[in-house]
């Protein structure tokens, strides 16, 4: 399986997915048709009777979204999307306190412009695949999820978060001295409205679960040990709606936001590369990474 995944990842890097937005037959046929799929960083368990897959992130220490992680995630999602038996996906984390720490900061530090462009294309692809999925997507948020982690939850159809005040959720980019791109902003605005997003983004605000519920950033809280069970209950409610009617409605709601990124995709990559290669931004990111390490001492 590891070898198959490696081969598929290299196909993806070569542009099979990125260029056309779909996996080629060549890439897809590399996968087994088993109901369980394990990669280095993700496991997927599909229940054939309910049509629901649980995609569990298991990339210690913090499920950060590295280029490899994003590639594995996108491949796993595409495989589920192509499986007619799969109607819904629950996203969750195998790590005890973290859903996802967002984009892997080391992918944005000290690398070449080509690397930044490939990384950003993978971030865009990940967002596009999840945002436009025909499946019902429910985030079972069983830990903290800053920045890209919050984005992942926001693109799902429904969010259940563990009611633990130690956890937080939000787009905290300004705290790193960087700026959330327009499609991160659009995703948040579509969920909690313009005014709340304006405050949250400028302040890089991280919401407690209770505050996140208050502003509508998450839909429901559950005790930590019940998050996945509640997510499954929600999933069955959503799956009671006929698929075609639900996903045509989803697509109608999401098309303008999706089209905006698709139209400006290359310009967005150029803008990211120009931004992240600035000395001042590199310095900010290095300092932030260092501060994370210092916190432990
Ligand atoms: C034009 C557009 C330009 C730019 C747009 C870019 C958009 C960016 C989006 C992002 O997602 S940026 C990433 C933002 N993420 C964060 O700020 C999260 C930072 N991390 C934390 O707050 C915490 O780590 C935690 C997630 C709450 C977990 O805390 P915990 O105490 O459990 O772990 P610890 O802090 O000790 O971390 C362990 C280990 O992991 C490293 N780490 C943490 N987060 C990241 C990350 N996002 N990327 C890379 N590495 C990360 C941390 O440094 C520790 O490393 P160490 O063991 O070597 O010390």
UniProtKB/TrEMBL annotation:
CDD domains: crotonase-like
Gene Ontology annotations of biological process type: fatty acid beta-oxidation
Pfam families noted in UniProt: ECH_1
Keywords: Acetylation, Fatty acid metabolism, Isomerase, Lipid metabolism, Mitochondrion, Transit peptide
InterPro entries cross-referenced by the UniProt entry: ClpP/crotonase-like_dom_sf (IPR029045), Enoyl-CoA_hyd/isom_CS (IPR018376), Enoyl-CoA_hydra/iso (IPR001753)
Gene Ontology terms: cellular component: mitochondrial matrix
EC number in record: 5.3.3.8
Listed pathway(s): Lipid metabolism; fatty acid beta-oxidation
Catalyses which reaction(s): (3Z)-decenoyl-CoA = (2E)-decenoyl-CoA; a (3E)-enoyl-CoA = a 4-saturated (2E)-enoyl-CoA; (3Z)-hexenoyl-CoA = (2E)-hexenoyl-CoA; (2E)-tetradecenoyl-CoA = (3Z)-tetradecenoyl-CoA
Subunit details: Homotrimer.
Its biological purpose: Key enzyme of fatty acid beta-oxidation. Able to isomerize both 3-cis (3Z) and 3-trans (3E) double bonds into the 2-trans (2E) form in a range of enoyl-CoA species, with a preference for (3Z)-enoyl-CoAs over (3E)-enoyl-CoAs. The catalytic efficiency of this enzyme is not affected by the fatty acyl chain length.
Family the UniProt entry places it in: Belongs to the enoyl-CoA hydratase/isomerase family.
UniProt-recorded name of the protein: Enoyl-CoA delta isomerase 1, mitochondrial
Record organism: Pleurodeles waltl
